[in-house]
């Protein structure tokens, strides 16, 4: 059996994310995945491994009072084992909100996502929403 293409993996990842299917989403990550979160906020930096990414995503849902969401906002673009995905992400809580575009860059090896680099259209606004480290 052959491994799915990077585009297939990215498509399935974002479908699972859109459904809120966390077990499927987490199962698509390589055990040593690295997640590079931009900015200067409590979630910024490199998060390693499935457990580290799980803690990051759980923290984001807590900080956004369960409202954080992300959708694909354009055509996925593939270059070898990397897939660049235009996204729109938003969240709100009682005292703040954010809604902006970005790009998620996924690296896929042997059918698993091994690295995720995130880019935000307005890093200062994202930092303000997530809060200081």
TrEMBL record:
What's the protein name? Nuclear transport factor 2 family protein
UniProt xrefs under InterPro entries: NTF2-like_dom_sf, SnoaL-like
Q: Which SUPFAM superfamilies match?
A: NTF2-like
Q: What is the lineage of its organism?
A: Bacteria, Bacillati, Actinomycetota, Actinomycetes, Mycobacteriales
Q: Can you tell which superkingdom this protein's organism belongs to?
A: Bacteria
Describe the location of the SnoaL-like domain by residue ranges.
11-115
């Amino acid at each position: 059996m052959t491994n799915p293409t990077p585009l297939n993996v990215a498509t399935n990842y974002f479908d699972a994310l859109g459904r809120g299917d966390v077990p499927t989403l987490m199962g698509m990550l390589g055990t040593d995945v690295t997640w590079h979160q931009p900015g200067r906020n409590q979630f910024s930096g490199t998060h390693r491994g499935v457990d580290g990414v799980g803690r990051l995503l759980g923290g984001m849902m807590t900080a956004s009072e369960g409202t954080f969401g992300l959708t694909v906002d354009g055509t996925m673009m593939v270059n070898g084992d990397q897939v660049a995905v235009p996204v729109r992400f938003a969240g709100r809580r009682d005292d703040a909100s954010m809604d902006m575009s970005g790009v998620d860059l996924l690296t896929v090896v042997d059918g698993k996502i091994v690295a995720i680099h995130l880019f935000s259209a307005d890093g200062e606004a994202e930092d303000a929403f997530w809060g200081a480290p």
